[in-house]
Amino acid sequence: MKLTFLGTGNSAMIPVYGCDCTACLEAQKNHKLRREKSSAFLEHNGKILLLDANAPDLMQRFPPGSIDRILLTHYHMDHVQSLFDLRWGISEPIRVISPDDPQGCDDLYKHPGILDFSTRAEPFQTFDWYGITITPLPLNHSRLSLGYGFEYEGKRLAYLTDTVGLPEQTMQWLKNFPVDWLIIDCNYPPETGGKKRTKKNHNDFGDILDIDRECQPGNIGMTHLSHDMVCWAEANSQVLSKRLRLMIDGDVLFFCE
Amino acid sequence: MKLTFLGTGNSAMIPVYGCDCTACLEAQKNHKLRREKSSAFLEHNGKILLLDANAPDLMQRFPPGSIDRILLTHYHMDHVQSLFDLRWGISEPIRVISPDDPQGCDDLYKHPGILDFSTRAEPFQTFDWYGITITPLPLNHSRLSLGYGFEYEGKRLAYLTDTVGLPEQTMQWLKNFPVDWLIIDCNYPPETGGKKRTKKNHNDFGDILDIDRECQPGNIGMTHLSHDMVCWAEANSQVLSKRLRLMIDGDVLFFCE
């Protein structure tokens, strides 16, 4: 089981179009520092499972026949954008497993093409993907969203985006089934000055520390990063470690070697 | 006034993902034969006006500050897809002129970011863009759609996609104001066998011949091409000419040199 990050940015990506902050300028100069919209893929037994579908080169990167399944966290545009092109392909249907969102996104349900949206993920109703047990985990977001836990031969990974904080049930799951890696939305730097939370849809770094204290995962990889978060992390690198890190596009995590 | 084609394919593009027809295989081998989703841009007086916004490399190709205006034909996803990324840029607002579609596409109106959707184009209500007179022209499509006529120093161009046939008023406009170039949706090869029309949303090649007979434009450039249309055109190249041609990505038309 191997997880590759296709994107680790938020919907504005890095560099943000027209921005001259440190993170954006560095990413303009060095393409390895660019961050596409957050998504990833799991490889296992020669099969590929996409976690969201928004990579700009998705159809070039994954040639026809190579995508076994697509697992969606939610139907916000920045997580499903590539499906609008992919659907018009000519191939066997590709099964898309997603939260039971009645709307989907734009006309995806009306004109699904080769995409089969009939399989819905329900919180805590586990299912199997070639021996990996997948557990849908509720998240807190403005749109019905699910993260996913993956377990294979005693190794565990959770991929939780988009969310602000975590629902109690999901927190409890993480405590009951400690993960080796928690991949989690950290869109914002920590809010300061004791202000009431103004960011309703995504975690800030303070939320990550709260979750870390409560669930104690083996490692935390932050994703869905804004340029503000990356700038802040560069200026406060002492808070990060090998165990608590910002992921970047192209990063790979191996499980069960 | 100079028109550059960013894309000349339909929503499935060419090559179609997973297709092994002649047109798709040739486009896989030779990238110059690829066709992205249909869009174009006009350059005039050092300014750029985008005609639809769906190019996969739009934000790389048009750096911040370089897009003066965006003119939308309609709000189907394959014509507005890049706006979902572009909106989160940091720049002066970019004015988007579009048909008065109450829905728009997904949450573009709700979260416009740097895009200003407040200017609506109305049929035959001309407006000016740096000395070019632009005339919105009604089209026949499943979504409220407008083509646009462009006139500068006696040279005329019309860009009409997406449409099946043309409304009588638009046909009359083309007869009253003969264009040097008619750029038009030709998604399909001609229907054969006297069947009743089954394609309700786009022109086939027979429609193009009908429009040509009635309006007699100087030249016709076909766009929004499906792989079926390109295959058919390759097998029936005698019907094409320098005057009646398939456009391809990267083609440039100069007016008023």
Question: Describe it for me?
Answer:
The structure is a homodimer of 257-residue chains. The first copy, chain A, is of the alpha/beta class and 257 residues long. The first copy, chain A, has 7 helices and 14 strands. Chain A has helices spanning 22-29, 58-61, 77-80, 83-86, 168-176, 205-215, 227-235, and strands at residues 2-7, 39-44, 47-51, 69-71, 94-99, 115-121, 127-129, 132-138, 146-152, 155-160, 181-185, 219-223, 244-246, 252-254. Chain A has a 7-stranded mixed beta sheet, with no helix packed on it. A 7-stranded mixed beta sheet of chain A has the order 7-8-9-10-11-12-13, covered by helices on one side. The first copy, chain A, is globular, with a radius of gyration of 17 Å. At the A-B interface, helix 4 of A face helix 4 of B.
Present the secondary structure layout:
The structure is a homodimer of 257-residue chains.
Chain A: E1 2-7, H1 22-29, E2 39-44, E3 47-51, H2 58-61, E4 69-71, H3 77-80, H4 83-86, E5 94-99, E6 115-121, E7 127-129, E8 132-138, E9 146-152, E10 155-160, H5 168-176, E11 181-185, H6 205-215, E12 219-223, H7 227-235, E13 244-246, E14 252-254
Parallel strand pairs in A: 3-4, 4-5, 5-6, 10-11, 11-12, 12-13
Antiparallel strand pairs in A: 1-2, 1-14, 2-3, 7-8, 8-9, 9-10
Name the overall outline of chain A: globular
Helix tally of chain A equals 7
Distance between the termini of chain A: 8 Å
Largest sheet of chain A at a glance? Answer: 7 strands, mixed
Strands of the widest sheet of chain A, in order across it, are: 6-5-4-3-2-1-14
Oligomer: homodimer
Instruction: Give the H and E element order of chain A.
Output: EHEEHEHHEEEEEEHEHEHEE
Per DSSP E runs of 2 or more residues, the count of β-strands of chain A stands at: 14
Largest interface: A-B, 25 and 25 residues
Spans where pLDDT lies below 50 across 5 or more residues of chain A: none
Portion of residues within helices of chain A: 10-25%
Structural class of chain A: alpha/beta
Cα radius of gyration of chain A in angstroms: 17 Å
